[in-house]
Amino acid sequence: MGGQYSRESSKKIMKNTSKRIKKTVYIKTFGCQMNKADSRRLKELFAMEGYNITEKKSKADVMVYNTCSVRGHAENKAMSHLGRLKFAKKNKPDLKICVVGCMAQRMGEEIIERLPHVSIVVGPSTMFRIPLMIEEEVEGVVLDTADSVKEFSDYIDEAACEKSEYSGYIPIMKGCNNFCSYCIVPYVRGREQYRDKSDVINECRSIAKKGIKEVMLLGQTVNSHPRFKDILKEAASISGIERVRFVTSYPGQMDREIVDIVAEHSALCNYFHIPLQSGSDRILKKMNRKYTAESFLDIVLYIREKIPSASVSTDIIVGFPEEKNADFQKTLDIVEKAVFDQCFTFKYSPRPMTTASKMDDDVSVKVKKERLAILNRECEKRALERNKMLNGKRVELFSEGGRKGRTDTYKIVFWEGSPSPPGEKVIVNVKKAMPHSLKGVRVL
To answer: pTM surpassing 0.85?
Structure first.
């Protein structure tokens, strides 16, 4: 078992990196934007300690797998990847294989039992101590899934924000207090902790000086931050920052004032991701979602009224315990009225530790598949309807490299014409709308 690893000790090691032989680290990320942000910080921490970062597993002395536990499929995928690494460990006995993140937090000792070639297993709160754990060369397997980080300042370090070509992730909070009955997040990420507003704004200013043009403010329930509205307004006013996004918004805390702030500040992207999960109040109550279908629809319709061009995306679960045809129809009714620009849809599957895992999973797999297929058809129909509104219009993009970019409404656009490096502004005349993307011709 691993002990406690302090940030101060880690900093001392970083000062002595010149004395060590350079090693190489490979980092693989599964799951949400928060995991991507965590991986960026891990890369920066390893770089600060003298490691080279590689995209090739064959060159790695250290492999880090940052895992997701929100759905069983995500865990199965990660375990499959990790299982195959036993051959790499056999060929390179000194190879360090590290499993971090939510799956590591949930499964802990089970990972060690099933994957004896793994060296380190740590949860989200202690993953940033991995370079120190490796440096100390602890014998045996290190397991640390204690939620020992008490202050968000210990979890986040401004210096550890990796510079990408043009976009940066900035977590402003972590954890969740809602305890939705199907969701494992509070059990693996912990209760809500909020970053100081001044730290968030200072990091925005810092990465703007590095040439970052777009920031994404992150949190499991990003709008639960007590100073969220102030953060939005101040981040949108920073010189050099041209786009500010935020995900994910909890519907029960999504109010009209947030929409008004977005409408008033040009740097705030006209994009809202608000998970519906179900259109049935009965099912929402069983899910422990603290809003109604009516209140959800009210905020979406206000967005449509206040910012007609805005995109609204959502998450929806089908086949939750006791979901009847009438409940599912209510979900379809909301989809019809809200006309979402994008829907992320899922069949319900019970997650360990959650309240819903104790319920009778009484909706058959067949019915879940049927409902999911119907829902996807309806969602794609509405998304196409929204995208067709852009036919013949010019849209401004930030290139993601090559001939692909995104609008401020988070729509993907492919174009004919000259390619563009990441972060460059491109103007495209839209010629064809599809449910999940747009195609056009570059005009600037």
So the answer is: yes
